[in-house]
Amino acid sequence: MIDHLLVKRFRQEVGDRLAHQRRLDQANGLPAMTGEDERQFARALISQVLEEHARNEIGLGRTPPTVEEEEALAAGIHAALFGVGRLQPLLDDAQVENIDINGCDRVFVSYADGQEAMHDPVAESDDELVELIQILAAYSGLSSRPFDTANPQLDLRLPDGSRLSAVMDVTVRPAISIRRARLGKVFLSDLVGNGTVGPDLGRFLSAAVAARKNIMIAGSTNAGKTTLLRALANEIPAGERLITVERALELGLDQFPELHPNVVAFEQRLPNSEGQGEISMAELVRRSLRMNPSRVIVGEVLGDEIVTMLNAMTQGNDGSLSTIHANSSMEVFNRIATYALQAGERLPIDATHMLIAGAIDFVVFVEKRNDYHRGGTLRRYVSSVREVNGCDGRVLSSEVFAPGPDGSAVPHAPVSCLDELMAHGYTPGGW
Protein backbone atom coordinates (compact mmCIF):
# COMPACT_ATOMS: atom_id res chain seq x y z
CA MET A 1 0.00 0.00 0.00
CA ILE A 2 1.26 3.49 -0.85
CA ASP A 3 1.42 6.01 2.00
CA HIS A 4 -0.59 8.81 0.39
CA LEU A 5 0.43 11.29 3.11
CA LEU A 6 4.08 10.69 2.19
CA VAL A 7 3.26 11.03 -1.50
CA LYS A 8 1.53 14.34 -0.85
CA ARG A 9 4.46 15.64 1.23
CA PHE A 10 7.13 14.54 -1.22
CA ARG A 11 5.11 15.82 -4.18
CA GLN A 12 5.20 19.27 -2.61
CA GLU A 13 8.94 19.06 -1.92
CA VAL A 14 9.77 17.94 -5.47
CA GLY A 15 7.35 20.46 -6.96
CA ASP A 16 8.92 23.31 -5.00
CA ARG A 17 12.41 22.32 -6.17
CA LEU A 18 11.21 21.98 -9.74
CA ALA A 19 9.56 25.42 -9.66
CA HIS A 20 12.74 26.89 -8.12
CA GLN A 21 14.83 25.47 -10.98
CA ARG A 22 12.44 26.96 -13.54
CA ARG A 23 12.85 30.40 -11.97
CA LEU A 24 16.64 30.02 -11.88
CA ASP A 25 16.73 29.05 -15.57
CA GLN A 26 14.58 32.03 -16.50
CA ALA A 27 16.64 34.45 -14.39
CA ASN A 28 19.83 33.21 -16.08
CA GLY A 29 18.30 33.53 -19.55
CA LEU A 30 18.42 29.78 -20.16
CA PRO A 31 15.84 28.12 -22.38
CA ALA A 32 13.01 26.45 -20.49
CA MET A 33 13.22 22.69 -20.14
CA THR A 34 11.20 20.66 -22.61
CA GLY A 35 8.39 18.56 -21.20
CA GLU A 36 10.50 15.39 -21.38
CA ASP A 37 13.56 17.12 -19.86
CA GLU A 38 11.38 18.36 -17.01
CA ARG A 39 10.07 14.87 -16.35
CA GLN A 40 13.61 13.46 -16.31
CA PHE A 41 14.72 16.21 -13.95
CA ALA A 42 11.71 15.50 -11.72
CA ARG A 43 12.69 11.82 -11.58
CA ALA A 44 16.16 12.83 -10.38
CA LEU A 45 14.60 15.11 -7.75
CA ILE A 46 12.28 12.30 -6.62
CA SER A 47 15.26 9.97 -6.16
CA GLN A 48 17.04 12.72 -4.22
CA VAL A 49 14.07 13.34 -1.91
CA LEU A 50 13.53 9.62 -1.28
CA GLU A 51 17.24 9.13 -0.52
CA GLU A 52 17.09 12.00 1.98
CA HIS A 53 14.00 10.41 3.54
CA ALA A 54 15.72 7.03 3.87
CA ARG A 55 18.78 8.61 5.56
CA ASN A 56 16.52 10.51 7.91
CA GLU A 57 14.61 7.35 8.86
CA ILE A 58 17.88 5.52 9.60
CA GLY A 59 19.08 8.49 11.67
CA LEU A 60 15.92 8.25 13.75
CA GLY A 61 16.43 4.54 14.30
CA ARG A 62 13.53 3.53 12.05
CA THR A 63 13.46 1.12 9.13
CA PRO A 64 13.73 2.92 5.77
CA PRO A 65 11.37 2.03 2.90
CA THR A 66 12.16 -1.15 0.99
CA VAL A 67 13.14 -1.00 -2.68
CA GLU A 68 9.59 -1.95 -3.65
CA GLU A 69 8.11 0.73 -1.36
CA GLU A 70 10.48 3.35 -2.77
CA GLU A 71 9.48 2.42 -6.33
CA ALA A 72 5.80 2.73 -5.42
CA LEU A 73 6.40 6.08 -3.72
CA ALA A 74 8.39 7.34 -6.73
CA ALA A 75 5.59 6.33 -9.12
CA GLY A 76 2.99 7.98 -6.91
CA ILE A 77 4.96 11.23 -6.64
CA HIS A 78 5.56 11.37 -10.39
CA ALA A 79 1.87 10.74 -11.12
CA ALA A 80 0.86 13.43 -8.62
CA LEU A 81 3.21 15.92 -10.28
CA PHE A 82 2.51 15.21 -13.94
CA GLY A 83 -0.80 13.39 -13.97
CA VAL A 84 -4.23 14.90 -13.57
CA GLY A 85 -6.03 12.09 -11.79
CA ARG A 86 -9.13 10.78 -13.52
CA LEU A 87 -8.82 13.48 -16.16
CA GLN A 88 -5.74 11.75 -17.57
CA PRO A 89 -7.60 9.27 -19.84
CA LEU A 90 -9.48 12.17 -21.44
CA LEU A 91 -6.23 14.07 -22.03
CA ASP A 92 -4.67 10.93 -23.47
CA ASP A 93 -7.50 10.60 -26.02
CA ALA A 94 -6.38 12.33 -29.21
CA GLN A 95 -9.99 12.82 -30.32
CA VAL A 96 -11.01 14.82 -27.25
CA GLU A 97 -11.04 18.54 -27.99
CA ASN A 98 -12.69 20.25 -25.01
CA ILE A 99 -13.65 19.17 -21.50
CA ASP A 100 -16.22 21.15 -19.50
CA ILE A 101 -16.75 20.30 -15.83
CA ASN A 102 -19.64 21.76 -13.81
CA GLY A 103 -18.86 20.00 -10.55
CA CYS A 104 -17.05 16.69 -10.14
CA ASP A 105 -19.86 14.57 -11.63
CA ARG A 106 -21.08 16.84 -14.45
CA VAL A 107 -18.43 16.30 -17.13
CA PHE A 108 -19.09 17.15 -20.78
CA VAL A 109 -16.66 16.18 -23.53
CA SER A 110 -16.46 17.63 -27.05
CA TYR A 111 -14.72 15.59 -29.74
CA ALA A 112 -12.81 16.67 -32.84
CA ASP A 113 -15.65 15.50 -35.10
CA GLY A 114 -18.10 17.89 -33.41
CA GLN A 115 -19.82 15.25 -31.28
CA GLU A 116 -20.49 15.85 -27.59
CA ALA A 117 -21.01 13.35 -24.76
CA MET A 118 -21.34 13.22 -20.99
CA HIS A 119 -18.47 11.51 -19.16
CA ASP A 120 -17.99 9.72 -15.85
CA PRO A 121 -17.17 11.78 -12.72
CA VAL A 122 -13.56 12.99 -12.49
CA ALA A 123 -13.42 13.16 -8.68
CA GLU A 124 -15.24 11.77 -5.65
CA SER A 125 -16.32 15.23 -4.51
CA ASP A 126 -16.11 18.89 -5.46
CA ASP A 127 -13.53 19.38 -2.68
CA GLU A 128 -11.33 16.69 -4.22
CA LEU A 129 -11.72 18.35 -7.63
CA VAL A 130 -10.66 21.71 -6.19
CA GLU A 131 -7.65 20.06 -4.51
CA LEU A 132 -6.60 18.53 -7.83
CA ILE A 133 -6.74 21.94 -9.51
CA GLN A 134 -4.79 23.48 -6.64
CA ILE A 135 -2.04 20.90 -7.11
CA LEU A 136 -1.87 21.65 -10.83
CA ALA A 137 -1.82 25.40 -10.10
CA ALA A 138 1.06 25.00 -7.68
CA TYR A 139 3.40 23.39 -10.18
CA SER A 140 2.27 24.53 -13.64
CA GLY A 141 3.85 27.67 -15.09
CA LEU A 142 6.72 29.72 -13.72
CA SER A 143 5.18 30.46 -10.33
CA SER A 144 2.54 29.00 -8.06
CA ARG A 145 -0.95 30.25 -8.85
CA PRO A 146 -3.41 30.36 -5.95
CA PHE A 147 -6.87 28.87 -6.37
CA ASP A 148 -9.01 29.43 -3.28
CA THR A 149 -11.79 31.61 -1.90
CA ALA A 150 -9.52 34.67 -2.05
CA ASN A 151 -8.45 33.82 -5.63
CA PRO A 152 -11.46 32.11 -7.23
CA GLN A 153 -10.23 32.40 -10.84
CA LEU A 154 -7.42 30.44 -12.46
CA ASP A 155 -5.84 30.10 -15.89
CA LEU A 156 -2.92 27.78 -16.56
CA ARG A 157 -1.28 25.46 -19.06
CA LEU A 158 -1.32 21.73 -18.30
CA PRO A 159 1.82 19.64 -18.87
CA ASP A 160 0.46 18.37 -22.21
CA GLY A 161 -0.11 21.94 -23.44
CA SER A 162 -3.86 22.07 -22.85
CA ARG A 163 -5.35 25.31 -21.50
CA LEU A 164 -7.28 25.12 -18.24
CA SER A 165 -9.63 27.80 -16.92
CA ALA A 166 -11.29 27.32 -13.53
CA VAL A 167 -13.58 29.27 -11.20
CA MET A 168 -14.95 28.59 -7.74
CA ASP A 169 -17.17 30.40 -5.21
CA VAL A 170 -18.60 32.62 -7.94
CA THR A 171 -20.46 29.53 -9.17
CA VAL A 172 -22.60 27.10 -7.16
CA ARG A 173 -20.06 24.35 -7.86
CA PRO A 174 -16.47 24.60 -9.14
CA ALA A 175 -16.45 24.97 -12.93
CA ILE A 176 -13.54 24.02 -15.17
CA SER A 177 -12.95 24.20 -18.90
CA ILE A 178 -10.02 22.46 -20.58
CA ARG A 179 -9.19 23.27 -24.18
CA ARG A 180 -6.94 20.70 -25.74
CA ALA A 181 -3.79 21.57 -27.64
CA ARG A 182 -4.13 18.70 -30.10
CA LEU A 183 -1.67 20.24 -32.55
CA GLY A 184 1.33 21.29 -30.49
CA LYS A 185 3.98 21.11 -33.19
CA VAL A 186 2.03 22.46 -36.15
CA PHE A 187 3.10 23.96 -39.47
CA LEU A 188 1.32 25.92 -42.17
CA SER A 189 1.55 22.86 -44.38
CA ASP A 190 -0.52 20.95 -41.79
CA LEU A 191 -3.21 23.64 -41.85
CA VAL A 192 -3.22 23.62 -45.66
CA GLY A 193 -3.60 19.85 -45.53
CA ASN A 194 -6.62 19.93 -43.21
CA GLY A 195 -8.34 22.78 -45.04
CA THR A 196 -7.88 25.51 -42.42
CA VAL A 197 -5.80 27.51 -44.89
CA GLY A 198 -5.96 27.40 -48.68
CA PRO A 199 -2.72 26.71 -50.63
CA ASP A 200 -2.47 30.25 -52.02
CA LEU A 201 -3.16 31.77 -48.61
CA GLY A 202 -0.59 29.45 -47.06
CA ARG A 203 2.09 30.78 -49.39
CA PHE A 204 0.91 34.34 -48.70
CA LEU A 205 1.14 33.94 -44.91
CA SER A 206 4.54 32.27 -45.13
CA ALA A 207 5.86 35.20 -47.20
CA ALA A 208 4.27 37.71 -44.81
CA VAL A 209 6.08 36.16 -41.85
CA ALA A 210 9.37 36.06 -43.79
CA ALA A 211 8.89 39.73 -44.76
CA ARG A 212 8.47 40.56 -41.05
CA LYS A 213 4.93 41.83 -41.32
CA ASN A 214 3.02 42.42 -38.07
CA ILE A 215 0.06 40.05 -38.02
CA MET A 216 -2.98 40.01 -35.73
CA ILE A 217 -4.98 36.76 -35.71
CA ALA A 218 -8.66 37.24 -34.80
CA GLY A 219 -11.62 34.96 -34.23
CA SER A 220 -14.09 33.67 -31.68
CA THR A 221 -13.33 31.44 -28.70
CA ASN A 222 -11.92 28.05 -29.73
CA ALA A 223 -11.76 29.03 -33.42
CA GLY A 224 -8.12 27.96 -33.73
CA LYS A 225 -6.30 31.28 -33.26
CA THR A 226 -3.51 29.84 -31.11
CA THR A 227 -2.96 26.92 -33.47
CA LEU A 228 -2.58 29.31 -36.41
CA LEU A 229 -0.25 31.48 -34.32
CA ARG A 230 1.97 28.47 -33.61
CA ALA A 231 2.02 27.58 -37.30
CA LEU A 232 3.04 31.12 -38.28
CA ALA A 233 5.69 31.19 -35.54
CA ASN A 234 7.14 27.98 -36.96
CA GLU A 235 7.75 29.86 -40.21
CA ILE A 236 10.20 32.12 -38.37
CA PRO A 237 13.85 31.18 -39.04
CA ALA A 238 15.57 29.27 -36.23
CA GLY A 239 18.26 31.93 -35.83
CA GLU A 240 15.88 34.59 -34.51
CA ARG A 241 15.44 35.37 -30.81
CA LEU A 242 11.77 35.16 -29.81
CA ILE A 243 10.14 36.62 -26.70
CA THR A 244 6.65 35.32 -25.93
CA VAL A 245 4.32 37.08 -23.48
CA GLU A 246 1.27 35.24 -22.11
CA ARG A 247 -1.18 35.29 -19.22
CA ALA A 248 -0.59 31.57 -18.75
CA LEU A 249 2.10 29.68 -20.64
CA GLU A 250 0.41 28.05 -23.61
CA LEU A 251 2.31 28.58 -26.86
CA GLY A 252 5.17 26.32 -25.85
CA LEU A 253 7.54 27.48 -28.61
CA ASP A 254 10.42 26.82 -26.21
CA GLN A 255 9.41 23.14 -26.16
CA PHE A 256 10.87 22.62 -29.64
CA PRO A 257 14.51 23.80 -29.54
CA GLU A 258 15.12 22.27 -32.95
CA LEU A 259 12.72 24.89 -34.37
CA HIS A 260 13.35 27.79 -31.98
CA PRO A 261 16.54 27.39 -29.95
CA ASN A 262 16.47 30.98 -28.64
CA VAL A 263 13.13 31.60 -26.89
CA VAL A 264 12.28 33.38 -23.65
CA ALA A 265 8.72 32.75 -22.42
CA PHE A 266 7.20 35.41 -20.15
CA GLU A 267 4.17 34.62 -18.00
CA GLN A 268 2.04 37.17 -16.16
CA ARG A 269 2.52 36.93 -12.40
CA LEU A 270 -0.55 37.30 -10.22
CA PRO A 271 -0.47 39.15 -6.87
CA ASN A 272 0.12 37.14 -3.71
CA SER A 273 -2.33 36.87 -0.82
CA GLU A 274 -1.26 40.34 0.36
CA GLY A 275 -1.92 41.80 -3.07
CA GLN A 276 1.80 42.26 -3.79
CA GLY A 277 4.15 41.04 -6.50
CA GLU A 278 1.91 41.33 -9.56
CA ILE A 279 3.63 41.73 -12.93
CA SER A 280 1.11 42.66 -15.60
CA MET A 281 1.03 41.79 -19.28
CA ALA A 282 1.78 45.41 -20.18
CA GLU A 283 4.87 45.39 -17.94
CA LEU A 284 6.06 42.14 -19.50
CA VAL A 285 5.67 43.52 -23.02
CA ARG A 286 7.74 46.56 -22.00
CA ARG A 287 10.33 44.30 -20.39
CA SER A 288 10.51 42.11 -23.49
CA LEU A 289 11.75 45.08 -25.53
CA ARG A 290 14.85 45.23 -23.30
CA MET A 291 15.65 41.57 -23.87
CA ASN A 292 17.07 41.96 -27.38
CA PRO A 293 14.09 40.38 -29.17
CA SER A 294 14.04 39.68 -32.86
CA ARG A 295 10.26 39.36 -32.56
CA VAL A 296 7.75 39.72 -29.75
CA ILE A 297 4.80 37.31 -29.72
CA VAL A 298 1.86 38.14 -27.45
CA GLY A 299 -0.25 35.03 -26.95
CA GLU A 300 -3.58 36.79 -26.54
CA VAL A 301 -4.55 40.44 -26.17
CA LEU A 302 -7.33 40.91 -23.63
CA GLY A 303 -6.70 44.33 -22.08
CA ASP A 304 -4.54 47.38 -21.64
CA GLU A 305 -1.36 45.65 -22.85
CA ILE A 306 -2.56 46.44 -26.38
CA VAL A 307 -1.12 49.98 -26.29
CA THR A 308 2.29 48.73 -25.18
CA MET A 309 2.22 46.03 -27.84
CA LEU A 310 1.27 48.42 -30.65
CA ASN A 311 4.02 50.79 -29.56
CA ALA A 312 6.47 47.86 -29.64
CA MET A 313 5.39 47.04 -33.20
CA THR A 314 6.19 50.60 -34.31
CA GLN A 315 9.62 50.70 -32.63
CA GLY A 316 11.54 48.40 -34.92
CA ASN A 317 10.23 45.05 -33.67
CA ASP A 318 8.70 44.12 -37.00
CA GLY A 319 7.33 40.65 -37.49
CA SER A 320 5.31 40.52 -34.27
CA LEU A 321 2.37 38.14 -33.91
CA SER A 322 -0.64 38.14 -31.60
CA THR A 323 -4.25 36.99 -31.26
CA ILE A 324 -7.45 38.80 -30.27
CA HIS A 325 -11.12 37.93 -29.85
CA ALA A 326 -13.35 39.47 -32.53
CA ASN A 327 -16.39 38.67 -34.67
CA SER A 328 -14.88 39.79 -37.99
CA SER A 329 -11.64 41.10 -39.43
CA MET A 330 -13.12 44.63 -39.59
CA GLU A 331 -14.28 44.51 -35.97
CA VAL A 332 -10.70 44.02 -34.77
CA PHE A 333 -9.99 47.75 -35.02
CA ASN A 334 -12.90 48.69 -32.76
CA ARG A 335 -11.96 45.94 -30.30
CA ILE A 336 -8.42 47.29 -30.09
CA ALA A 337 -9.74 50.82 -29.60
CA THR A 338 -11.93 49.60 -26.73
CA TYR A 339 -8.97 47.95 -25.02
CA ALA A 340 -6.87 51.09 -25.54
CA LEU A 341 -9.50 53.18 -23.75
CA GLN A 342 -9.01 50.94 -20.70
CA ALA A 343 -5.24 51.47 -20.66
CA GLY A 344 -3.49 53.92 -18.37
CA GLU A 345 -2.72 56.11 -21.38
CA ARG A 346 -6.48 56.54 -22.04
CA LEU A 347 -5.89 56.94 -25.75
CA PRO A 348 -8.79 58.50 -27.65
CA ILE A 349 -10.16 56.46 -30.53
CA ASP A 350 -8.61 58.58 -33.29
CA ALA A 351 -5.16 58.29 -31.68
CA THR A 352 -5.61 54.53 -31.33
CA HIS A 353 -6.55 54.23 -35.01
CA MET A 354 -3.37 56.11 -35.95
CA LEU A 355 -1.37 53.72 -33.76
CA ILE A 356 -3.06 50.69 -35.36
CA ALA A 357 -2.32 52.00 -38.85
CA GLY A 358 1.36 52.36 -37.99
CA ALA A 359 1.68 49.02 -36.22
CA ILE A 360 -0.45 46.27 -37.81
CA ASP A 361 0.07 45.10 -41.39
CA PHE A 362 -2.47 42.26 -41.64
CA VAL A 363 -5.49 40.95 -39.73
CA VAL A 364 -6.22 37.25 -40.29
CA PHE A 365 -9.71 36.09 -39.30
CA VAL A 366 -10.39 32.46 -38.34
CA GLU A 367 -13.92 31.01 -38.25
CA LYS A 368 -15.39 27.96 -36.55
CA ARG A 369 -18.57 26.48 -37.95
CA ASN A 370 -20.52 23.22 -38.03
CA ASP A 371 -20.68 22.08 -41.65
CA TYR A 372 -24.12 20.49 -41.88
CA HIS A 373 -23.46 19.58 -45.51
CA ARG A 374 -20.77 17.22 -44.22
CA GLY A 375 -22.77 15.56 -41.47
CA GLY A 376 -22.29 18.29 -38.87
CA THR A 377 -18.48 18.14 -38.96
CA LEU A 378 -16.83 21.03 -37.15
CA ARG A 379 -14.80 23.21 -39.53
CA ARG A 380 -12.13 25.74 -38.70
CA TYR A 381 -10.87 27.89 -41.52
CA VAL A 382 -9.44 31.30 -42.36
CA SER A 383 -12.20 33.30 -44.05
CA SER A 384 -10.66 36.76 -44.37
CA VAL A 385 -7.34 38.59 -44.49
CA ARG A 386 -7.41 42.36 -44.24
CA GLU A 387 -4.46 44.61 -45.06
CA VAL A 388 -4.10 47.87 -43.11
CA ASN A 389 -3.49 50.70 -45.59
CA GLY A 390 -3.39 53.82 -43.42
CA CYS A 391 -5.54 56.16 -41.35
CA ASP A 392 -7.96 58.95 -42.17
CA GLY A 393 -9.82 59.51 -38.92
CA ARG A 394 -10.32 55.74 -38.88
CA VAL A 395 -8.27 52.76 -39.95
CA LEU A 396 -8.24 52.29 -43.72
CA SER A 397 -8.05 48.67 -44.83
CA SER A 398 -8.75 46.39 -47.76
CA GLU A 399 -9.81 42.76 -47.72
CA VAL A 400 -7.08 41.08 -49.74
CA PHE A 401 -8.52 37.59 -49.09
CA ALA A 402 -12.31 37.28 -48.78
CA PRO A 403 -14.71 34.34 -48.25
CA GLY A 404 -15.06 32.12 -51.33
CA PRO A 405 -17.97 29.81 -52.24
CA ASP A 406 -17.34 27.50 -49.26
CA GLY A 407 -16.41 30.33 -46.87
CA SER A 408 -12.66 29.80 -47.08
CA ALA A 409 -10.52 32.81 -47.92
CA VAL A 410 -9.58 33.29 -51.57
CA PRO A 411 -7.68 36.16 -53.27
CA HIS A 412 -9.89 39.23 -53.50
CA ALA A 413 -7.81 42.40 -53.95
CA PRO A 414 -4.19 43.34 -54.69
CA VAL A 415 -1.73 43.71 -51.81
CA SER A 416 0.11 47.04 -51.55
CA CYS A 417 3.31 45.36 -50.31
CA LEU A 418 3.29 42.76 -53.09
CA ASP A 419 6.91 43.39 -54.09
CA GLU A 420 8.09 42.58 -50.57
CA LEU A 421 6.07 39.37 -50.47
CA MET A 422 7.27 38.31 -53.91
CA ALA A 423 10.84 38.82 -52.71
CA HIS A 424 10.08 36.09 -50.18
CA GLY A 425 8.67 33.60 -52.64
CA TYR A 426 5.02 34.58 -52.93
CA THR A 427 3.43 34.47 -56.38
CA PRO A 428 -0.08 35.99 -56.47
CA GLY A 429 -2.95 34.26 -58.16
CA GLY A 430 -6.64 34.85 -58.60
CA TRP A 431 -6.68 38.63 -58.97
Would you summarize the structure shown here?
The protein is an alpha/beta fold.
Structural topology:
Elements: H1 4-27, H2 35-59, H3 67-82, H4 88-92, E1 96-102, E2 107-111, E3 116-119, H5 126-139, E4 153-157, E5 163-167, E6 175-179, H6 188-193, H7 199-210, E7 215-219, H8 225-233, E8 242-246, E9 263-267, H9 281-288, E10 295-301, H10 305-313, E11 321-325, H11 331-342, H12 349-359, E12 362-371, E13 377-391, E14 395-403, E15 409-411, H13 418-422
Helix pairs in contact: 1-2, 1-3, 2-3, 9-10, 10-12, 11-12
Domain Bacterial type II secretion system protein E: 87-362
GO molecular function: ATP hydrolysis activity
Protein name: Pilus assembly protein, ATPase of CpaF family
What does this structure look like?
There is one protein chain. With 431 residues, the chain is of the alpha/beta class. The chain folds into three domains: 1-82, no CATH class; 87-182, Beta-Lactamase, CATH 3.30.450; 188-424, Rossmann fold, CATH 3.40.50.300. The chain is 36% helix and 22% strand. It is built from 13 helices and 15 strands. Strands 9-8-10-11-7-12-13-14-15 form a nine-stranded mixed β-sheet, with helices on both faces. The chain has a six-stranded antiparallel β-sheet with strand order 3-2-1-6-5-4. A hairpin with a 4-residue loop joins strand 1 (96-102) and strand 2 (107-111).
